């Protein structure tokens, strides 16, 4: 019985844990989701007066953020609802409002409206708090202030819910945040939220509906976008990103690329800028063809400490990554002693897992990873007693994620070796490493 269970767990582990997260559960961010609240500020169902609702979108994810072109929230109305007016966002289409004749027409009569955030700089009288950032949502770790978006709308022509005793409108359904990889639940009624109207006062809304959207890498199709290369002070070999990590040059799935030239000297197609859609990737040609490369260099060995230099290079020639972040797994991160030029926060701190952390740029300094540019850090780690070693690839990161996407690592048997013929021992520990990890993982599961 025990053996059967063991084998089953082993199979489950092998099939599902390889590199992508199974389902929507992310062990690095177990509570990460996007929550959408509909807070009713006025509601007079009896006389079917238009109601006013504040819709807010909260990114509760520690390291995933929503980048341009931003969220596009859509849903299906339960009945014949129309949106009379909006603040802080707008519907992409007005739809067929002909039944309202001339004069005063609604903002949107579509059965399935698509709402988008307004751009920064929107006139003040069209704004609400937390609006108008072009659909961008920060990760919770990077800024809990800009991880929320909101808009307000006035809705008319609605019907009362049959099971709500006629006191509430019928709930819309089929929610979608319009960002690849996310899927949303139906709305549920939750205890009404309080909202802050000024520094000292909170008001209670009349009714709150809540929708939860979760991310899964399985749902987000598409090629890899990032790879890792390695080097050390003790070996002159540089282990590059695996060939074709993000596609092979010239194949239909790989991004277009530009060869040669010094950085900054290439003639680039005009565009990008303030357009809604980001330009299709155009990368500097390379063996790996990834828009992002993370280079980990083991730089110095001190008696009690060691030093790593990490460089994140943007090979994409038409894209700046604003508010980029990097999630890294390495057993020595818990003894990170000093870090230059980046922000850092440990990410997972439960039980024995304390080996994952998040790095991101410093505001007004390197929070933006420029097209064809790079950002760098050096860090000093205290050697963990009885654990630290330069052999067996221990000094290299186990996993790396850029902007929430897992990066392709070189195969372990290509890691830079120690010079003094320690290769047999090295090979043994390379094999022992993962299986020990597997065993300790199983011990936790069973
Ligand atoms: C938001 O972050 C700031 C500083 O990073 C912190 O002081 C504050 O408590 C946070 N607010 C919430 C609601 O988590
Ligand atoms: C959501 O609600 C719609 C309409 O009430 C229903 O058809 C659908 O099955 C529901 N979906 C889920 C996942 O419950
Ligand atoms: C990236 O930022 C630089 C400097 O701010 C700017 O010149 C360039 O146009 C930006 N590129 C895109 C694609 O937005
Ligand atoms: C994890 O590491 C941090 C230092 O990076 C330390 O402050 C914290 O106490 C550690 N947590 C556990 C559970 O070991």
How would you describe what is shown here?
It contains two helices and 28 strands. The chain has helices at residues 2-16, 423-445, and strands spanning 34-42, 51-59, 72-76, 82-87, 89-91, 114-117, 148-156, 173-176, 182-184, 188-190, 194-196, 202-204, 207-215, 226-232, 235-239, 256-258, 282-284, 292-301, 305-314, 321-322, 325-329, 336-339, 342-346, 356-361, 368-369, 374-382, 399-402, 405-406. It has 446 residues and is mainly beta. The strands form seven sheets. Strands 1, 2, 4, 7, 9, 10 and 13 form a seven-stranded antiparallel sheet that branches. Bound molecules: 2-acetamido-2-deoxy-beta-D-glucopyranose (4 copies). One 2-acetamido-2-deoxy-beta-D-glucopyranose (NAG) binds next to loops. The site of one 2-acetamido-2-deoxy-beta-D-glucopyranose has 5 residues, from loops.
Characterize this entry briefly.
Helices cover 9% and strands 33% of the residues. The protein has 446 residues and is mainly beta. The longest helix has 23 residues, at 423-445.
Q: What is the beta-strand fraction?
A: 25-35%
With helices defined by DSSP (H or I, 4 residues minimum), what is the helix count? 2
Mean pLDDT: 85
CATH topology assignment of the largest domain: Immunoglobulin-like
- End-to-end gap: 12 Å
CATH architecture of the largest domain: Sandwich
**Whole-number count of domains:** 2
Bound molecules: 2-acetamido-2-deoxy-beta-D-glucopyranose
CATH secondary-structure class of the largest domain: Mainly Beta
Structural class: mainly beta
Radius of gyration using CA atoms only: 26 Å
Low-confidence stretches: 1-22, 271-275, 422-446
Cα shape: elongated
Sheet with the most strands, sense and barrel status: 7 strands, antiparallel
**DSSP summary, beta strand count:** 28
Helical coverage, percent range: under 10%
H-E string: HEEEEEEEEEEEEEEEEEEEEEEEEEEEEH
């Amino acid at each position: 019985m025990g053996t059967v269970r063991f084998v089953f767990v082993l199979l489950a582990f092998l099939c599902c844990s390889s590199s992508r997260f199974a389902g929507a559960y992310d062990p690095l961010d177990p509570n990460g989701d996007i929550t959408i609240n509909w807070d009713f500020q006025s509601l007079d169902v009896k006389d079917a007066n238009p109601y006013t609702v504040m819709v807010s979108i909260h990114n509760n994810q520690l390291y995933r953020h929503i980048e341009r072109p931003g969220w596009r929230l859509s849903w299906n109305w339960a009945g014949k609802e129309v949106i009379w007016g909006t603040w802080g966002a707008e519907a992409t289409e007005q739809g067929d409002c002909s039944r309202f004749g001339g004069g005063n027409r609604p903002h949107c009569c579509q059965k399935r409206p698509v709402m988008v955030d307004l751009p920064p700089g929107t006139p003040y009288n069209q704004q609400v708090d937390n609006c108008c950032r072009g659909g961008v949502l920060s990760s919770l770790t990077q800024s809990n202030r800009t991880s929320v978006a909101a808009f307000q709308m006035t809705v008319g022509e609605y019907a009362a819910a049959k099971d709500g005793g006629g006191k509430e409108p019928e709930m819309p359904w089929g929610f979608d945040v319009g960002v690849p990889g996310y899927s949303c639940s139906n709305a549920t009624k939750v205890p009404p939220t309080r909202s802050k109207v000024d520094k000292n006062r909170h008001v209670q809304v009349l009714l709150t509906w809540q929708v939860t959207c979760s991310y899964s890498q399985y749902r987000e199709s598409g090629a890899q976008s990032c790879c890792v290369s390695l080097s050390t002070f003790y070996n002159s070999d540089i282990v590059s990103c695996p060939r074709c990590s993000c596609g092979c040059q010239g194949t239909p799935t790989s991004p277009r690329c530009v060869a040669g030239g010094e950085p900054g000297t290439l003639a680039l197609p005009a565009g990008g800028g303030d357009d809604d859609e980001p330009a299709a990737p155009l990368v500097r040609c390379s063996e790996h063809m990834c828009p992002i490369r993370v280079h980990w260099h083991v730089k110095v060995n001190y008696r009690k400490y060691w030093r790593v230099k990490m460089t994140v290079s943007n090979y994409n020639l038409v894209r700046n990554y604003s508010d980029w972040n990097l999630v890294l797994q390495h057993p020595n991160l818990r003894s990170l002693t000093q870090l230059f030029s980046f922000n850092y926060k440990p990410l997972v701190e439960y039980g024995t897992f304390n080996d994952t952390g998040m790095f991101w740029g410093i505001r007004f300094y390197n929070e933006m990873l420029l097209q064809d540019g790079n950002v760098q850090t050096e860090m000093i780690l205290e050697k963990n007693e009885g654990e630290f070693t330069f052999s067996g690839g221990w000094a290299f990161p186990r996993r790396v994620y850029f902007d929430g996407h897992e990066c392709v690592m070189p195969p372990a048997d290509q890691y830079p070796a120690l010079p003094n013929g320690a290769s047999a021992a090295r090979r043994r520990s390379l094999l022992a490493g993962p299986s020990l990890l597997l065993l300790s993982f199983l011990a936790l599961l069973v």
